[in-house]
Amino acid sequence: QYFGVYRSFCWEHRPQQPLQPRPCQDNTCPICLHTVEDKISYKTMGCPACQDALFHRQCIQRLALHAGIAFRCPRCLNQEQFMTDMLTMGIRLSKRPPSWESDQEVRPSDQRHGRCDAATCFCLGGREHVEAYGPWQLWLCSSCAAEGTHQYCSSLGNSIYSWECNTC
């Protein structure tokens, strides 16, 4: 926990969210827009205020670091209860203004990043061409999701499960 005496817990005794998320047709993380488990676990967290938002732990941690003092639930926008619960669950917060206020390139968006930002894009279809699988699959930065690359353009093999941009 990144507050007070900075307590640390083993797997069995770690704090757990006492949430019972409502059954929902949409099991999409509102941050990365990928599928998320429909139950609370170490890797899947929920909003204690609305109990509708489920997101990946990695995604909410990245959001916390980028949002800084503006950190809140990405679905219901609750701040106080959400921030307190995330701190208890071990999410580290940044005490600075949101990164998108200081960097004109970074803005919150409702759309997923959709282009290859590699220094040299080899795709004949162009930087915006994306395929679901194969060399022209678009990989988003696993830390900020603000940059992407075609699998081929950054020489990412089939055994790679995440990619991080040069900025992160």
From TrEMBL:
PROSITE patterns, A to Z: ZF_RING_2
SUPFAM superfamilies (UniProt xref): FYVE/PHD zinc finger
Q: Which residues form the RING-type domain?
A: 29-76
- Protein name according to UniProt: PHF7 protein
Quote the gene name from the UniProt entry: Phf7
Q: Name one GO cellular component term.
A: nucleus
A single Pfam family it belongs to is PHD_G2E3
Offer an example of a GO molecular function term for this protein: zinc ion binding
InterPro entries in the cross-refs = PHD-type_Zinc_Finger, PHD_PHF7/G2E3-like, Znf_FYVE_PHD, Znf_RING, Znf_RING/FYVE/PHD
Sorted UniProt keywords = Metal-binding, Zinc, Zinc-finger
